[in-house]
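Just curious. Invent one:
>
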Amino acid sequence: MQPEDHIGDVIAKERFHQKIAADAAARAAGLTVDELAAFEDSGKATKAVNYDALGQLLGLNATKLKNVSGGWMPPDPDLGQWRELRRVTSTEAFSVNAYVAWDEVTREAAIFDTGWNADGIIKLIEEEDLNPTHLFLTHTHHDHIAGMQALREKFPKIRLHTDAKSTPVQHHNRRNDCVHIGSLRVTNRVTTGHAEDGVTYVVGNWPEDAPFVAIVGDAIFAGSMGKGNISAEDAKRCVREAIFTLPEDTLICPGHGPFTTVAEEKANNPFF
């Protein structure tokens, strides 16, 4: 699976965050404004980019920018450590990841986001003979919840968890919640900034002491992050405080793009 963002997307997002004009960024990069626009659109430059000066202007790590521009990707994790975890990807205008985790003995399952539709999730549940009892939403942007109605119609007893203020109070996450999915334990951490109701779910107590799994929505991607629509400052602070404080072998499950880990993102994500 390809990363959600290429190097041009990273530059464009931080220009948006910092409100830096294209001509200033182009001068720092050693490009014309038209060349910068093409670079941000495609991720490919027709001549050398001055990442040191551009990174300094934007507040991005120049070494990590060079790594991403050179094609860095996180290595594929050994998913055998988490035998009861699946990524379900749906695609319309673009691809969105949802996740299902379950207890291997009781078959009780949790669903994290829905993607564009619930078809793949329902198929997995039927194939694995699962009992979905909880639906956790990382945020309520449409591409992440479009399949929610179908899921709730199919499984009317499923319990919803969200930070969305518009949702009835019985569905609101509480910061000290620890939800048991059989032997698995799900806690939550605030990751706002991209979305007002952004939240990361941390799944622990896996068989054989497998590392934590963090289902992060759009808080962070492999080598990038969700655009700070509400506040880029808050978005970055939440990643540092809620995700980067997890153990370095924690598996990060983003809403778009490939799996990664806390260690990989600390070492390679230009935003941090």
